[in-house]
C-alpha cells in the first residue's frame, strides 16, 4: 500500500511516499528558514503562503522520485496538528482534496507521533517498549511507548521547550534563526566549564523539565560580562557552550532517570534537538554505562519532514488503527493544540 504524506505544521513543507511493505520510497522538503530569518522567527502568515506555493511541485517531485502516478497512491496522510493553524490548513486541505478526487482514505497524523516513530525509519530499528525523549521547538516530553498508538506521558516541560531554550538564548547571543544549530556551532569554539549556568530541575524527583529560567541566567551572565568589559568573542562562545551543556545535561539526566524508573533499556530520541551532536554523544556514553541502547532518526529526519508523517500513517495502518474506508465527508479537521497522550489508540483521529 502506497501512502502519500504531507507535513506543513510550521516552517517546512514536507512530502513523502511510504510503502507499507517496502518503507520510504521518496521524500522532498522545502525549508522556509531563509525566508523567516530576517524576522528572527517564523511569521505564520508567510509560512502558510509559502506552503501553498510549494506543496504541489513537491508532490509531483516525490511521485516522480518514487516512480509512481497519483493513481498508484492508496491513502493520503497529513499532519492534523499541533502547529500553526494556517500552515496546517494548507496540508490538510490539499491532502483532503486529493483523497476526495481519488476516492481514497485520508489519515490525520499527530505531528509528535511522527517525530516519535521516526527513529523506526533507521536501522537498527528499536523494538517496543521504549522510552522516547521528544525534543522539538515546541515540545519536551518523556514518553513510554509500548506500541504504535500506545503512549504514556512520564514527564514534560513546565514552561519552555528545549528547542525554544536553544532558540531564545541564541537570539540573546545575537545568533540567527533557527538558534539551535547556530548556538551549537558557536559552542564548538567555547569552553562549557568557563561559565557556570544552572541545571533547572536536575535533581527533582519527577521527569519534568523547566527551561525558562535558563535564558534569564544567560542574560544576567551576559550583562555582568558586558559591564566588566570582558564580553568578547571567546566569552560569547563560552556562554553558548555553557548553555548547550546545561540543556543537554538536564535532558540526558531525565532520560536516564526514566530508563531506571521503568527498567526499560531502549531510549529513542526524536525532534529537532535530537540533531544536536553533544546530546547524541552524551547519551551514547551514558547508554554504554547503563548497558542500554539509544536510537536516533536519520539526521536529516530529526527536524520536520514529510517522511515521518507518511511513515507514522503506514505504522498505524499496519497496527490496524486506521479506518481504510474512504470517508463520506472530507472535513478540514485540524488541531493546532493537541496533546499526544490524548491520541485515541483506535481509529482515525479525525
Ligand atoms: O522538530 P522541529 O524541527 O520542529 C518542531 O516541531 O518544533 O524542531 C525545531 C527545533 C528548533 O528549536 C531548533 O533550534 C532545534 O530544533 N534544533 C537544534 C538543532 N537542530 C535543530 N537544537 C540544538 N542543536 C541542533 N543541532
Ligand atoms: Zn516538529
Structural features, described:
The chain is of the alpha/beta class and 350 residues long. It has 2 domains: 2-116 and 302-342, 2-Layer Sandwich (Nucleotidyltransferase, domain 5), CATH 3.30.420; 128-296, Nucleotidyltransferase, domain 5 (2-Layer Sandwich), CATH 3.30.420.40. 41% of the residues lie in helices and 18% in strands. It has helices spanning 33-37, 44-66, 85-102, 111-117, 162-172, 179-187, 212-227, 233-262, 277-290, 307-318; strands at residues 2-7, 12-19, 23-31, 75-81, 106-110, 130-135, 140-147, 150-156, 266-270, 293-295. The strands form 2 sheets. A 5-stranded mixed sheet has the order 3-2-1-4-5, sandwiched between helices. The longest helix is centred in the last third of the chain and has 30 residues, at 233-262. The protein is globular, with a radius of gyration of 20 Å. The structure holds 5'-O-[(R)-(carboxyoxy)(hydroxy)phosphoryl]adenosine and zinc ion. Zinc ion is lined by residues 111, 115, 136, 271, 304. The site of zinc ion has 5 residues, from helix 4.
Amino acid at each position: 500500500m502506497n501512502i502519500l504524506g504531507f507535513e506543513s505544521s510550521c516552517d517546512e513543507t514536507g512530502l513523502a511516499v511510504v510503502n507499507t511493505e517496502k518503507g520510504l520510497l521518496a521524500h522532498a522538503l522545502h525549508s522556509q528558514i531563509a525566508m523567516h530569518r530576517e524576522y528572527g522567527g517564523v511569521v505564520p502568515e508567510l509560512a502558510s503562503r509559502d506552503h501553498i506555493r510549494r506543496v504541489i511541485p513537491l508532490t509531483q517531485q516525490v511521485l516522480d522520485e518514487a516512480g509512481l502516478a497519483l493513481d498508484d497512491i492508496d491513502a493520503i496522510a497529513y499532519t492534523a496538528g499541533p502547529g500553526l493553524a494556517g500552515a496546517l490548513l494548507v496540508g490538510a486541505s490539499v491532502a483532503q482534496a486529493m483523497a476526495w478526487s481519488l476516492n481514497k482514505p485520508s489519515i490525520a497524523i499527530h505531528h509528535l507521533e511522527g517525530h516519535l516513530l521516526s527513529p523506526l525509519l533507521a536501522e537498527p530499528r528499536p523494538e517496543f517498549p521504549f522510552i522516547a525523549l521528544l525534543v522539538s521547538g515546541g515540545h519536551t516530553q518523556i514518553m513510554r511507548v509500548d506500541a504504535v498508538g500506545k503512549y504514556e506521558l512520564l514527564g514534560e516541560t513546565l514552561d519552555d521547550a528545549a528547542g525554544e531554550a536553544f532558540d531564545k538564548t541564541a537570539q540573546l547571543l545575537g545568533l540567527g534563526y533557527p538558534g539551535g544549530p547556530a548556538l551549537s556551532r558557536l559552542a564548538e569554539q567555547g569552553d562549557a566549564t568557563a561559565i557556570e549556568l544552572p541545571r533547572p530541575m536536575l535533581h527533582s524527583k519527577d521527569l519534568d523539565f523547566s527551561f525558562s529560567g535558563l535564558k534569564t541566567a544567560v542574560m544576567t551572565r551576559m550583562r555582568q560580562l558586558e559591564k566588566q568589559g570582558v564580553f568578547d568573542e571567546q566569552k560569547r562562545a563560552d556562554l553558548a557552550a555553557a548553555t548547550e551543556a546545561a540543556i543537554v545535561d538536564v535532558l540526558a539526566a531525565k532520560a536516564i532517570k526514566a530508563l531506571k524508573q521503568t527498567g526499560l533499556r531502549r531510549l529513542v530520541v526524536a525532534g529537532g534537538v535530537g540533531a544536536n551532536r553533544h546530546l547524541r554523544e552524551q547519551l551514547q556514553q551514558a547508554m554504554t554505562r547503563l548497558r542500554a541502547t539509544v536510537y536516533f532518526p536519520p539526521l536529516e529526519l530529526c527536524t520536520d519532514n514529510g517522511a515521518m508523517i507518511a511513515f507514522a500513517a503506514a505504522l498505524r495502518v499496519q497496527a490496524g488503527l486506521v479506518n481504510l474506508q474512504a470517508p463520506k465527508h472530507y472535513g478540514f479537521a485540524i488541531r493546532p493544540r493537541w496533546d499526544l497522550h490524548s491520541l485515541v489508540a483506535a481509529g482515525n483521529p479525525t
